[in-house]
Design a protein that fits this description.
mainly alpha, two-stranded antiparallel ribbon, 16 helices, elongated, binds zinc ion
């Protein structure tokens, strides 16, 4: 994450309860060979999961919550009591995600056979995609559905509306005159992806709203703790770690026709470098920033709109002032542009400004030439 999450970030109660229901189910499953209502918690939530079944819903074309639980149960039962015990214990032992990020268990489900893995994944995906919206379940969770949770998450006094992973995009566009319940919301990213870490699919600390670019274009199902080639890596824990103080912007070849703007890490700490590189690989941070900053001339023109050479230096000075914490929560790209202008303020811009001035005059002369013809 570029910015850590706010300390008052609300956890989504529906996820907390569904996560507890799943853990309870795995525990109850250890000592029985019969699939029944007794595998679910006694109250309304357990009943709602039990009632959400194909046989109770004439419109259902595919499996619902109970059917998904049942399919997992059948496969686990075939695998034997030890498998059931191990799955329950793996889930119970890894509920503290801060501990998990510090010491990731990368091969948590290697002991499961393919049918168990498949049905577990299918159940967990269903809990996340469908069960969370079942009206009774939202009601027992205090009435906060996912849209209401997103609105609370992105309050200006909480996390605001800028993506915590990149700082380059809004989470969702806010529309005036539209009721809260109908506002658009961002998708939630599973930090530990559903496909590789299914038991965290509804863990309340594992789900974070991110911008579309981070979630859908860049991250997809990348593994926070393993490179593509399988080697180990570490990742920032979003609730208390962040990259924002570890970043430098560097300008190369200022005298060239097109200076290059680069993002670097300003730490020598091996663990932090590992986490920065993971963050960069997952969300494609450097290439996105360097892509946005590929023309310094265009940035000066767009952000400063100078009319005279003196405007360039004054504009840089003006734009280099730090943002308030509230601006960083409201304005996409604010962090990155301020960082760039701060660096531009430190370096000798005279050659660049002279070139800029020359190009402007050429353009004017060219314009006059055309007019005079
Ligand atoms: Zn983002």
């Amino acid at each position: 994450m570029l910015f850590r999450l706010a300390p008052n970030t609300p956890r989504f109660e529906v996820f907390r309860l569904l996560n507890a229901e799943l853990l309870n189910f795995l525990e109850q499953a250890v000592n029985t060979n019969t699939f029944s209502r007794a595998l679910f918690t006694q109250g309304t939530l357990g009943q709602a999961c039990w009632d959400n079944a194909k046989e109770n819903d004439a419109r259902a074309k595919s499996d619902l919550t109970r059917d998904k639980f049942q399919k997992l149960f059948i496969e686990l039962n075939d695998s034997g009591k030890d498998t059931k015990q191990q799955l329950f214990e793996s889930m119970r032992a890894n509920q503290d995600l801060q501990v998990f990020f510090f010491n990731p268990q990368r091969n948590l489900f290697d002991f499961l056979n393919e049918p168990c893995r498949k049905t577990l994944k299918s159940l967990c995906t269903h809990l996340y995609c469908s069960t969370k919206d079942v009206p009774t379940i939202v009601r027992v969770s205090g009435g906060t559905d996912i849209t209401a949770h997103f609105n609370a998450y992105s309050e200006p006094t909480v996390n605001g509306n800028v993506c915590k992973a990149c700082g380059m995009a809004k989470l969702a566009v806010f529309r005036a005159g539209v009721p809260d319940v109908d506002q658009w919301r961002a998708d939630y990213d599973h930090q530990l992806c559903k496909s590789k870490y299914p038991i965290f699919a509804v863990h309340p600390d594992n789900l974070i709203p991110l911008c579309d670019v981070c979630n859908q274009d860049a991250k997809k199902a990348k593994d926070l703790f393993k490179h593509k080639n399988g080697t180990k890596r570490l990742a920032f824990y979003p609730y208390n770690e962040e990259a924002k103080g570890l970043i430098d912007i560097e300008i190369d070849n200022l005298h060239d026709p097109e200076p290059t703007i680069k993002v670097n890490w300003n730490t020598q700490d091996g663990v932090l470098l590992d986490k920065l590189n993971t963050w960069d690989e997952i969300y494609e941070i450097r290439s996105r920033v360097e892509g946005q900053f590929r023309s310094l001339e265009a940035i000066i023109e767009d952000e400063i709109r100078p009319r005279h050479p003196a405007d360039v230096q004054n504009g840089i000075h003006y734009e280099a002032r730090p943002h308030s914490p509230n601006s960083l929560k409201r304005k996409e790209w604010a962090f990155w542009y301020q960082k760039l202008f701060y660096i531009l303020e430190q370096i000798d811009m005279a050659p660049f400004i002279a070139k800029w001035d020359f190009v402007q005059h050429q353009a004017e002369d060219g314009g006059e030439y055309i007019l005079n013809e």
